[in-house]
Design a protein that fits this description.
32% helix; six-stranded mixed sheet; alpha/beta; seven-stranded mixed sheet; 13 helices; binds guanosine-5'-diphosphate
């Protein structure tokens, strides 16, 4: 039940989709007993405290929606750690790192009464190197005399300590103001509204039909951008109007250059492919359907997988196939593309134009998947049911639990499962499959990783 019991305001969670207005994330870190849970309750404005004198209680309740002065954000309580655990320093550092990865802003809570401990020093060190804005909350400053103690926390090198009393609410409004102040307009890893035309890399081995397809797609509508006369090695992109939208096909110069595939050019071809992927959001991989899938085709697909880009695989020269061959090919393709069952496929003929128009919705769909964010509450509700129906296998006599999950990023979507123990590879793959079934993601790679909280 701990997974479903998240957030206070269900209406704030929208359907999965890239328009769901990702909220900035504030991660709360700090030693046990410094008052993180109390402070989180204060921030989310919840009356009843979930604070209990049970060690580790915060582990099960870690994400909340908060609103302050009309601004919405997500609060993640990264939980405490067991102070008796061996390798505590490592755990502390890791917790801070997780926070730094996930968050837009980090709220580091220190107990002003106790002062700076070794553990606080370690966290401070990690956070200073994180590049993320850090707010240092000096908690348990219940009265004015205590402010002096708060000042001692300057020693952490994280700027001005913000005195607060989570318990009594003293200065908590001021702290929230400071948090608001540091919230970015655009949460991390998401593009702004003016992202410009979406960027497509058209890939494939020589003679597969890249230029033919580009000609077919672009027609007369093409616009060359970044032309650098005489320097054929510089990428030249083309803006192409398709399906009522403008697309940027990256490095089309490489496609057009006729001297491009000289002997021994494998290395350069792969460099070029990498470069194009680097600059693109989605890859269209062309494969010659009249031939068997070659090493080179699979190598290109591997490069796309490596890059984390969305992918559409287009089987070209379909006009050259007879019925038998088509049937055989479908089977062959399923087998060959077993690593990327999620890639969207299209059968086309660049020469005749047959089904070429089907590429645009596929590219669109892949990009949409790539940018999708699943709301945290929905993700956790889904996983709660999933785990209840199919629990992870017992390991070393213990039943690992998924305590909490979050989509840490989009483009590509990456999920982090916080667990109480090791989840077998097969079980993680099962979860990945089910996440795909539930939330879509056709055409996009997704990543599911776990962070074990012991
Ligand atoms: P966490 O382990 O960091 O989540 O800490 P908790 O929120 O569970 O708080 C630990 C203890 O500190 C509890 O007994 C709280 O009542 C107490 N506490 C939290 N905030 C304050 C505060 O601002 N002032 C005082 N005096 N006690 C506090
Ligand atoms: P690139 O090297 O990948 O840019 O490939 P090209 O576009 O230059 O095409 C190589 C050859 O394949 C040319 O002779 C094209 O006419 C031919 N070709 C491209 N697409 C098709 C197709 O869909 N069907 C057939 N039959 N031939 C094609």
């Amino acid at each position: 039940a701990e997974l479903a019991d998240l957030g206070t305001d269900d209406s704030s969670e929208q359907e999965a989709g890239h328009d769901s207005g990702p909220q900035p994330v504030v991660a709360v870190v700090g030693r046990p007993n410094v008052g993180k849970s109390t402070l989180v309750n204060r921030i989310i404005g919840r009356r009843e405290a979930v604070v209990e004198d049970v060690p580790g209680v915060t582990r099960d309740r870690v994400t909340y929606d908060a609103t302050w002065r009309g601004r919405r954000f997500t609060v993640v309580d990264t939980g405490g750690w067991d102070p008796d655990a061996t390798g505590m320093a490592l755990k502390i550092a890791e917790q801070a790192q997780v926070a730094a990865e996930l968050a837009d802003v980090i709220l580091f809570v220190v107990d002003a009464v106790v002062g700076v401990t070794d553990a606080d020093e370690i966290v401070g060190h990690v956070l200073r190197g994180s590049g993320k804005p850090v707010i240092l909350a000096a908690n348990k400053v219940d009265n004015q005399q205590m402010e002096l103690e708060a000042a001692a926390l300057w020693a952490l090198g994280l700027g001005e300590p913000q005195p607060v009393s989570a318990l009594h609410g003293r200065s908590s409004g001021d702290l929230l103001d400071v948090i608001l102040d540091k919230l970015p307009e655009t949460p991390q890893q998401r593009f702004g509204v003016e992202r410009g035309p979406r960027r497509v890399a058209l890939l494939g081995k020589p003679n597969v039909g890249k230029s033919s397809l580009l000609n077919k797609l672009a027609g007369e509508e093409r616009v060359l951008v970044d032309p650098m006369a005489g320097t054929t090695r510089d990428p030249v992109d083309e803006l192409v109007q398709l399906g009522g939208k403008t697309w940027r096909f990256v490095d089309t110069a490489g496609i057009r250059r006729r001297d491009r595939e000289l002997k021994g050019a494998d290395f350069y071809a792969s460099m070029r492919t990498r470069g194009a992927l680097e600059r693109s959001e989605v890859a269209v991989v062309l494969i010659d359907a009249s031939e068997v899938l070659t090493e080179q085709d699979l190598r290109i697909i591997s490069l796309v997988i490596e890059s984390g880009r969305a992918m559409v695989v287009a089987f070209n020269k379909w006009d050259l196939l007879d019925e038998d061959r088509r049937y055989y090919l479908e089977k062959e393709i399923d087998r060959q593309l077993i690593r990327v069952p999620w890639a969207l496929r299209a059968n086309i003929s660049a020469k005749t134009g047959w089904h070429v128009e089907k590429l645009v919705p596929a590219i669109d769909r892949a990009l949409e998947s790539w940018s999708t964010r699943v709301p945290t509450a929905r993700l956790n509700a889904f996983l709660t049911d999933l785990v209840a129906a199919t629990p992870p296998p017992v390991r070393g006599g213990k039943q690992p639990k998924i305590l909490f999950a979050t989509q840490a990023s989009t483009e590509p979507p990456k999920f982090v499962l916080f667990t109480s123990g090791f989840l077998e590879e097969t079980y993680r793959r099962f979860i990945e499959r089910r996440i795909r079934e539930e939330f879509g993601f056709a055409g996009s790679p997704i990543e599911v990783t776990m962070k074990i909280r012991e």
